[in-house]
């Protein structure tokens, strides 16, 4: 797979004792596992990861302001909004509705956390969702 071989960089064959052989995942098995995952599940998983990361960057976790970074949060919320907009016709309302609710909550949290709030329609992701009001 992509330039991998049975020899180590020094030219000797990789032994069963090497870290590469002992603890490495079987890439063929991983590929098969990924191939079996429905696209909706991949989209929802990515969306949830973006939501979680945005919540951390907004300071909404137990650690509070320790990891707060509104510039990073803006990027994550915007990416989440773009993903949801692009996949709206591909995932059912069953999956999309709670993700849209979470996005709106993050957008409102961003607005509240901002020292100088964006104009309505100019906040993160609002180009995809339209203006978000409390």
What does this structure look like?
Residues 1-29, 115-134 are annotated as: Disordered. Residues 8-25 have a biased composition (Low complexity). This is DUF1844 domain-containing protein. InterPro entries: DUF1844. By secondary structure, the protein is an all-alpha fold. The protein is globular. It contains 6 helices and no strands. The longest helix has 21 residues, at 93-113. The chain has helices at 19-23, 27-35, 39-57, 70-87, 93-113, 126-129.
In brief, what are we looking at here?
57% of the residues lie in helices and 0% in strands. The protein is mainly alpha-helical. α3 runs antiparallel to α4 (70-87), α3 (39-57) runs parallel beside α5 (93-113) and α4 packs antiparallel against α5.
Main β-sheet, in a few words? none
Tell me the helix content.
55-70%
Quaternary organisation = single chain
What class would the helix/strand composition place it in?
mainly alpha
Which residues form runs of ≥5 with pLDDT under 50?
1-19
From the alpha-carbon coordinates, what is the Rg to the nearest angstrom? 21 Å
| Shape descriptor | globular
Question: Key terms for this structure?
Answer:
134 residues, mainly alpha, 6 helices, 57% helix
Topology:
Elements: H1 19-23, H2 27-35, H3 39-57, H4 70-87, H5 93-113, H6 126-129
Helix pairs in contact: 3-4, 3-5, 4-5
Pfam family, one: DUF1844
Region (Disordered): 1-29, 115-134
Biased composition (Low complexity): 8-25
